[in-house]
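anyone else get weird line breaks when pasting these?? whatever heres mine. first is seq + tokens for prot A
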Amino acid sequence: MQSSIITFEKIYMSIPFQDKDWARNNGFKWDPKGKAWYLPPGKDPLPFKKYWSYLENTFHDKEELKKRGCRFNLGLKKWYLPIGGRASFDKFIKWWPESLKQFVFSEKFVIQQFISRTGQAEMFKAIDPDTDEEFAIKYFLIDVDQLSTAKYKRAVSGEVEALQKLGEHPNILKFTDWGEIKRTERRYIVSEWVKLGSLLDYIELSEEDWFRKIFANFYNLDDHERQEIIESSKNELADAWLDESKIIIGILEGIAWAHSKNIFHRDIKPGNVLLDVDLEVEELIPRLCDFGTAKIYKGEEIIQSKHTVVEFRTQPYRPEFKELSDAGKKEIHYQKTWDLFAWAILTIEVLANDFMKTSEEALDVLTKKLASELDEDIVLLLKSAMALNPSDRPQDVSEFRDKIKELTEIRKQRLGWQD
């Protein structure tokens, strides 16, 4: 899958002679006069970023460009940066062709890689060339199925407002910047980049593969050193709850912080929980992200307004209901319980190292497979968070979090567990 950002002019690139067949097979055209390959208009140039090299509007800066290692193509009458030169093309944004400037946000964040697309937005990895710091860019689409333009714009504005209200918290993805591309009227949000991906990867990968992912991103180890660490970890004492408590409680801390700011996330799921590493204490840190369906509660009675996107839900992390039914109206009134409902499902998935298709399946796994390995009080709290009747679910996340933390400490002391 490629991004929706395409060229609207020819983009000349420096492609080695030995790659000519590859270039032709990927839609490039040869310019015999300029003796260079170019990507025709209407294409996505991002997959070929390592070949970007040609500059525009350089007449008054040719001496500077020459000093910085650029060369001049007589046939095209264009300055370019040789591939493999001492400087990075990202340092020359001022002279990029207009089609490539689409990949620069807030005049400083340069897109490096397309990550994914959802029904509402595209995700990119970007850097700040001045610092080499990495960032994530959420680039909102213009049209979204089943949502009017007004409702969608309100939802995007709501996400920005929620992020601004949240401020900084160790279990919330750090919000850096936001803006709108005037030419396309598409908005974007810039956040910190988290290298390890999401809880989806954590649940899906084996323990050994997860270790290898951490090593690849944070440690400069050879194969022998990596294997030694993996083997030693297999001999460590394990506990079903305590092994995962940093992630489980960290997610709860993020939810509690959001609720303290009167913000309900309403779309807690594995893909919206990113995982970072604190290398000093060697602990995983979960960070909540994607507040696109969040509700900012301002003290009024919680009702479904014309701008509330309650129709966006992901099985099995949200209670199922028909919006216009009495049960649906009751769920909407108690929507502050949805984040804890989702947290309970996630917790069961992390403990079981498997994904659940329905909340009923999650409850069954908890009761028949996990309960024997957990304290009874912890099991009861998990069950209460998934109660079918929303009024029976815990209403105060902070109070619930404190109970979970207390029970975790009791279990640590009983088992003689050391962090």
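and prot B, same format (seq, then tokens)
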Amino acid sequence: MGIRCSIMHIIEQQLNRKDINITTDLIDETNADSLDMVEIIVDVENEFDLLIPDEKVKLLRTPGDIIFYVQENI
């Protein structure tokens, strides 16, 4: 499974939604709370053996943001 598919799967599972695309604002459009976002980031970090600094986490609002960050940092 590629990076994009893996990340989309993590997000869809965490939020229990299938209507998410790479430009969906996870906080504004899906009402994800801070715990949802932390769990998504932790799952992404574990999946890709990556550590995302807290200052970067605040900037990751869409699946596309997360995908781009992972692609640039693995």
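btw re prot B: The helical segments are 3-15, 34-48, 54-57, 63-73. The two ends are 15 Å apart (CA to CA).
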